[in-house]
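Dear colleague,

Thank you for sharing your sequence with our group. We've completed the structure prediction you requested, and as agreed, I am returning the results in plain text so they can be pasted directly into your records. Please verify that the sequence below matches your submission; if there's any discrepancy, let me know and we will rerun it promptly.
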Amino acid sequence: MRIWGRYDMPVTEKRLSLSSPGKINLYFELLGKREDGFHEIETVMAPVSICDQLEFRLTDQPDLRLELSGKKQGIPTDERNLILTTLQRVQQLAVQEGKGPLPGLKIRLTKNIPVAAGMGGASSNAATSIIAANELWGLGWPMSKQVELAASIGSDVPFFLSRQLAHCTGRGEKIRPIPCNFRLPVLIAQPPVGLSTAEVYARCQVPESPQSSLSFLEALHSGQPKSIGNLMFNRLEPFAAGMTGWIERFRYEFSRTHPVGQQMTGSGSCYFGIYPNRKVARKAAGCLSNRLGDVTILLGQTLNCGGVSGF
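Please find the predicted structure tokens below.
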């Protein structure tokens, strides 16, 4: 499998700074239940310009240390954090290849992506950690090896190695990048409460006849926001809506701002709308901020080739 993408990686001899983008699910369908307990899914994910920032610095000590800043929201800094779990896995594999011992790393995470919100922040951080470790530790791993490791860590992690619009199947780990030359203006609303992915999946039901994605994929190739928005879909949304009143409230409030499409991302709790242009999106952001005072409104855009640019 070829993974497309590029990375903005300002690097010095001992330090590497990387953006770690969030994502939205433009399409999400359940295809079946797997023997391993996961669901077989089909989804189209797009990286967005709402990003965490990660700084990695080599140290003289052998340990891994993680520091936080920004929207911490109770994020752990020990082995419960996927950044450290991922780096430990990289260390183990490198030692097995005879590339150890490796120097330690001090990692600083500036958190901007909402937590427990369906935007893949932890998975993105894990993928970014693989990229950084491969560079700073001089491992020379090909992308195929990085993808294999990423898939063993989490279903969404391989997607964040590509950092490009992609059609994903299996558990979400089978990636087919979709070349595109457009960026969709997007507005994301984060409610004051999150949703558990496990609980949402526990409530969901696999349809007898899953919806075909062919029309949506054709709309993507057109690059027209209205065509894409009209065919967006998320099978998990009604099940999540049964767990929180925020989904229905967002559906009503977003409809008043005239998006070309709107829905929940992933398993929630964030909800998003896409708009025909930046001007309309900015106006909508102001309206939603006034009407939803207890909600965080994030304004951004989808990314078309891995780079992060301002909105």
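Summary note from our side: DSSP finds ten helices and eleven strands in the chain.

Kind regards,
the structure core
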